[in-house]
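Justification of computing resources. Each target in the renewal requires a structure prediction run like the one illustrated here; the chain below, 231 residues long, is used simply to show the kind of job we budget for.
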Amino acid sequence: MALIHLQDKVAIVSGASRGIGEAIALAFAEAGAKVVVSSRKQEGVDQVAAKIKEAGGEVLAVAAHIGHVDQCQALLDRTISEWQRVDVVVNCAGTNPYFGPMLTIDEGAYQKTFDINLRGAFELSRRVTQTIIDRKGTGSIVNIASVAGMRASPLQGVYGMTKAAMIAMTRSMAMEFGSSGVRVNSISPGLIDTRLAAAIVQSDAAREIVTSRAALGRIGVPEELAGAALF
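Resulting structure tokens:
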């Protein structure tokens, strides 16, 4: 049973085809929200949408590449067309195409990391916020950042840069948007067992280092973040 009730609220969750995004989308649906499940591939969002429908939830599956501004706008337009409003955005879409020294990252991987991890979240957030202000409503933006944005992580320099920028963006948006009734917060997970973290999770040596530093002595799972996003 959901402890938070979000009936009649509309939530867009990007990066929702698996992992943390999927867990958050399912949690919002369980809490009664109408959920827009979004990710790059239609097949992936359809699978998550099917789970929500099976549980009796209301869901819209929209494929969108969050790193492309026109697709951010199209995602918003599709949501407004279907449900006439957006109350919540969870910016969970993320990528880490390069695991290695900053000295040798190529321009393509660098730009992709910034476009998806930062620019997409910025563009979608400000567009949704404007619609909330226009209808004189209230809302919430949740940015999924990372501890890599708070402390240096080996071989994740550029990824960490994008997450540090996301944390700074969250603080600035919270200051700017708060007076208009829009809360902005970020969640900074440690190592979570997802495909994005596969390079670390599947390495015995790396996993041992991470778990030895974790208070619970283990790697986290996506479902453990859902409650924070709901709040």
